[in-house]
Amino acid sequence: ADLASALLVFGLGALYVHLRIVRWPLLPTLGRLTFAALPFIGSLVGLRALGVNWLVAVVVSWSVYAISLRICGIITEDEILWVQQFLEQRNLAKRGMPQ
Predict the structure, then answer these.
(1) CA atoms in the 13 A half-sphere facing the CB of 69
(2) pLDDT of 63-72, one tens digit each?
(3) Helices marked H in 17-99 — which ranges?
(4) What whole-number distance in Å separates Cα of residue 63 and Cα of residue 55?
(5) Percentage of residues in the chain with pLDDT exceeding 70?
(6) 5-8: long-range contacts at Cβ-Cβ below 8 A with a sequence spacing of 24 or more?
(7) What is the CB neighbour count within 10 angstroms for residue 64?
């Protein structure tokens, strides 16, 4: 019930934003997200059915989801490069090295 109500609130909020604030291709985006989630769910259920530890199954499944997002074009190459640059800058800052 909690998950269903959270999904309902999310769905209604996304619809409101789409209709009142900014328009974007809503159905294709949701379709790609759903398509990307199918391998995640399949790998999680499959690994658990094989008796793999929860932690390992979740880590592997999230990795599969990230790869699916990239394949579906939801995450672009520019976004990946931005994250890499951000992490490099953060690591340099932690070491106290000039950027």
Answers:
(1) 13
(2) 999 899 888 8
(3) 26-49, 54-71, 77-95
(4) 12
(5) 92
(6) none
(7) 18
Residue 63 C-beta-side C-alpha neighbours within 13 Å: 6
Residue located via tokens 């490099």: 88
Please, is 61 exposed, middle or buried when counting C-beta atoms within 10 Å of its C-beta (0-12, 13-18, 19+)? buried
- Residue at 74: amino acid letter: I
pLDDT for the residue 42:
94
| Residue 41, CB-side half-sphere exposure with 13 Å CA sphere | 6
* 33 contacts 74 by C-beta, under 8 angstroms: yes
Q: What is the pTM of this model?
A: 0.60
First-to-final CA distance of the chain: 49
